[in-house]
Amino acid sequence: MLPFFKRKNNDKPKMTGNESTVSSEELLNETSEQEAEQNQIHTELSIHPEWTLSKEDQYSFQFLNMECPPLLPNQVSLSGINLQEEKEGTYQVTAFIRNSLSKAITLHETTLVLLDSEDQVLGRKTFDLSDAGTIPGQSSRPWNFLFTDKDLFTTSLPEEGWKLAFQLKPSSRKHSLDLENSWDQTLADKDKEKLKEMVEKLDPPKAGEVNFMGLQASKKDDGNLHVTMLIRNGNEKNIKLEQIPLQVEDAEGDMVAKGGFTLNDFEVKANTSKPWTFIFPKELIQKENADLSHWKAYPIQKQTK
């Protein structure tokens, strides 16, 4: 095993790689409900029980772990520490395996990709990560990943800005239409068929992505604005939505309406798109006579200070 860190003049250790994160539900079908109230999760250093480290390396890993940004709930990440040539044709990549769940996880055979700063694939290899042992809840475990020439697509590897990432398996399930019972019972068969065909013709959302697509917007006689959206779930698991803040803009880019919607037991099944109509009462209309020949509606992102 190579020395973990090469330092000159007592320089502080430095992370030369970037971080990549995935949903623990996507990767492992694992979540922890108690993390829902936590916005940021700081992981504690966890050394494999069979590793024997010098005090200097122990300090360096502790220092670098503290430099890692906090994770969101239900995430697993790979945070690049260093990349060095072990011998000709063999490269040792050291990275933290980070677990934001409150419970321990065990990884198994997993394909990882080595990427440059522009996410171009430099190499790919399948590892048996059960060797890394059980990763405790809310912890970071350093681990070594060996790549050889046969795993790499280039002989020129960057010294900085690279990252190691999980390669998730593409969904084998075709993206399809998901109708709420009330819609299924009241919508005409021809309209159901049109929606079904549209969903199947659209490019599916990216893996793990949830996005909104506008279908129809119209001002009613009572002054209310009805906006029908297609909520598209690219996850392998069902999702539940409770609060959706929406903003509508017209053809001129002006804000027409803005408001928050509370949904009860609203679920979008895995790899499906569900239509739903959001009704903005006239009190929330901010522009009369809006040009709705072209429009867009989107969830309002929370602003961070």
**SSE sequence, one letter per element:** EHEHEEEEEEEHHEEEEEE
Radius of gyration: 24 Å
pLDDT under 50 segments (min length 5)? none
Distance between the termini: 44 Å
Shape: elongated
Roughly what is the average pLDDT, rounded to an integer?
A: 89
Count up the domains: 2
Widest sheet: strand ordering: 1-3-4-7-2
How many strands?
A: 15
Largest sheet: 5 strands, mixed
Helix content: 10-25%
Q: What structural class do the secondary elements suggest?
A: mainly beta
Residues in β-strands, percent: 35-45%
Alpha plus pi helix count: 4
Give a written overview of the molecule.
This protein is mainly beta. It folds into two domains: 19-166, no CATH class; 176-299, Immunoglobulin-like. The chain has four helices and 15 strands. The protein has a five-stranded mixed sheet. Strands 9-14-11-10 form a four-stranded mixed sheet, with helices on one face. A three-stranded antiparallel sheet has the order 6-5-8, with no helix packed on it. The longest helix has 13 residues, at 55-67. The model has no long low-confidence stretch (mean pLDDT 89).
